Amino acid sequence: MLDIISIGIICIALLLIFIGIGVPIGPSFIISGLISTFLILDGQRAMALLIGSAHSSIAAPSWVAIPLFILLGGLAVQSGMARKAFRSADALSSGMPGSVGIATNLGAAGFGAISGASIAATSIFGKMALPEMRALGYDKKFATGIIASAGTFSAMIPPSMMFIIYALFTNTSVAGLFFAGIIPGILSAVIFSIYIYLRAKRDPAMVKRQKELPKMAPVERAKAIGESWPIMLVAVTMLGGIYTGIFTPTESAAIGCIMILIIGFAQGHFRRLSSLSNALKDSANTTSMVFLINIGALFYAKVLALSQVPTITTNYLVNLEVPPIIIIIIICLIFFLLGMIMVPIGIYAMILPIVAPIVSGLGYDLIWFGVITMKLVEIGAVTPPVGLNVFALKGVTPKDVSVTDIFRGVGPFVIIDIIILVLLIAFPFLSLWLPNLLF
């Protein structure tokens, strides 16, 4: 007869096996959880636990924010706001070495301010920016590395669906997480842009091609920058409303959707029913996938709790006679390694029930830790073997660009991201200054 702790270990092993053989993450959570629960409880109570998890995933009002933010990103794509963000960023960087790469980088940050979707930003900017960069002589690895990496920090700039999911697993403030992500997200965009500028400046062929481009006239530059006013209006309204307490994060997502609909209709983007229906279909598909993962994740977390593995692990790590920062580094390493093989929601569901009490028990701020984990899972989104952003970009690139080319291209940006991660760990005020000031 297996003891309850052994069953918990089996539960974790089964999940990794199912993911390793290619079973989708949602069913992997459910199947491994059910098998383990049958070993702890009888079949009837195991199914009752699964049904209860499904109900709490759908019935809890907090989860309503997720489909609304997914719809917000879908409407932003269909309304052409990504192209407006790119044109505005291109106007800002016009005439500089690596201007199109910098524009892609800054444009992804601007688009992130209304979509909060890493994969969406990667796919859209891959279609818009890659042909221009290739025409200007950018090495294909450098060009695709810029695009795949730019998508990562766009998910950190609020509103971010992953921050909402983190908040639901850790009972932290969504508003606090939103504002905590602003400075790290902008810092990432600035440092990436500096690297692109320096690398382009060292490439004589690329600089020569860029000098052949006519610089934007002041009037044209001002007009292109002004095109981003809908993005700024939506972002300021949503974040301003949350900060002032006029509406909750869920209500801010609904208001953002309404604003994009009105602006998009006024500018002629939603006058065809197909544009709106495409946004609704994509959002429904994504929401279904996310909710299936959530149901499986919550069920899996409850099974782990039954096995007492999280409690035992927490007590063991908290009582280790090592500096707390060593434990944080160990946890970060686990997130980093899992980011190479799992989707972010799955990582949060598997790890947060175990590590959140540890981090809190060591005296660290869970909002700060939310920014750290976001940076870690987004680094995982561009690292092999399962780099979601890399494969999303491959889907929109020409045949002469391989997955290997993209992984090689993101290498320098991963190193930069790790340096930024070290800064965020060493200087928590980079994440906490703004939420502490505002709240």
UniProtKB/TrEMBL annotation:
One of its GO terms (molecular function) is transmembrane transporter activity. Coiled coil: none annotated. One of its GO terms (cellular component) is plasma membrane. Keywords: Cell inner membrane, Cell membrane, Membrane, Transmembrane, Transmembrane helix. It is a multi-pass membrane protein. InterPro entries: DctM, TRAP_DctM. It is found in: Cell inner membrane. Its main location: membrane. Residues 13-428 form the TRAP C4-dicarboxylate transport system permease DctM subunit domain. NCBIfam families: dctM. This is Tripartite ATP-independent transporter DctM subunit. It comes from Salinicoccus kekensis.
